Amino acid sequence: MKVVIDTNVYISSLLFKGKAREVYDICISNTDVFISGFIVAELSYKLSNKFSIPSKAVKEIIKSILSVVEVAEINTKLPNVCRDIDDNEILQLCESISADFLVTGDKDLLILKKYKSTRIVDPSQFINSVV
Predict the structure, then answer these.
(1) DSSP run (H or E) holding 34
(2) Model's pTM, two decimal places?
(3) In 4-131, which ranges are continuous DSSP H helix?
(4) Which of 72, 66, 62 shows the shortest CA–CA distance to 34?
(5) Could you give the number of structural domains in the chain?
(6) DSSP state at residue 5
(7) What phi and psi values does residue 32 have, to the nearest 5 degrees?
(8) How far is CA 13 from the centre of its chain?
(9) DSSP class of residue 104?
(10) What CATH number corresponds to the domain at position 36?
(11) Helix (H/G/I), strand (E/B), else coil: 119
């Protein structure tokens, strides 16, 4: 099973635990998790700027994530589907790898429910689907 974890779920799993952490643990243990350069950059930026995590710690977090996920090669055209144009980058990743699931807390993505072959679900829905 191929899964894309959105930036907001990575952040929640790192800082707040709960369902997001459960999703992360399930995905790392039981699925193929894919990430893009866009998500890595967004995650780094938000951890540093929004949550004031020191640069050295952010680098260690990113290194840890990259050790257990696969960086995808983007080979599709950037779609123009979402109100928030950055969300199109996430959908492009999903399409490029033919993801089974996109796990996100982003309402602009969740409202779509599906994009091409990818089911778009929140952490609770993902857990209920795979457990």
Answers:
(1) strand 32-35
(2) 0.95
(3) 7-15, 18-30, 37-49, 55-66, 85-97, 107-110, 123-130
(4) 72
(5) 1
(6) E
(7) -95, 115
(8) 11
(9) -
(10) 3.40.50.1010
(11) strand
- By the 8 A CB rule, do 113 and 120 touch? yes
Q: Tens-of-pLDDT digits for all 131 residues of the chain?
A: 999 999 999 999 999 989 999 999 999 999 999 999 999 999 999 999 999 999 999 999 999 999 999 999 999 999 999 989 999 999 999 999 999 999 999 999 999 999 999 999 999 999 999 87
Q: Which tokens belong to 42? A: 């967004």
Q: Are 101 and 121 in contact (CB under 8 A)?
A: yes
Terminal CA-CA length for the chain: 13
Q: What does the alpha-carbon distance between residue 118 and residue 74 come to, in Å, rounded to a whole number?
A: 16
Cα angle for residues 43, 44, 47 (degrees, 5° grid): 80
Structural domain span for residue 13: 2-130
Query: For residue 11, what are its two tokens?
Result: 């952040």
User: Taking each helix axis from N to C terminus, what angle separates 85-97 and 37-49, rounded to the nearest 10 degrees?
Assistant: 140
Q: Which residue do the tokens 């995590």 mark?
A: 53
* Rg of the chain taking only CA atoms, in angstroms: 14
Q: Rounded CA gap, 116 and 126, in Å?
A: 18
